[in-house]
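**Paired protein data**
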Amino acid sequence: MYQIEGISVYLYGDRSNQPVVFIHGFPYDHTLWDEVIAALGDRYYCISYDIRGFGSSAVGTGQYTMEQYVEDLEQLISVLELEDTILCGFSMGGIYRAQGT
């Protein structure tokens, strides 16, 4: 596990492969994607994380906005220096793209 600004991040596979960031929905955590990552991990650099307030990520005040979740995703992509990234979201995790990411 890797921590970025209180967000628990899990990295799988070869960093030289195309990155895929998996974003879970409410009320899940990063383990939602375990079977998908197991199937794709040989071909992609898979990144899953617990969005703020879920799983092993920091709870803080518990008052989060979609904008904060998008900022967290942008921070994760920046810190990990990901390029040409595929985003894969489920439920609430699927609306991040519509928010401008």
DSSP finds two helices and five strands in the chain.
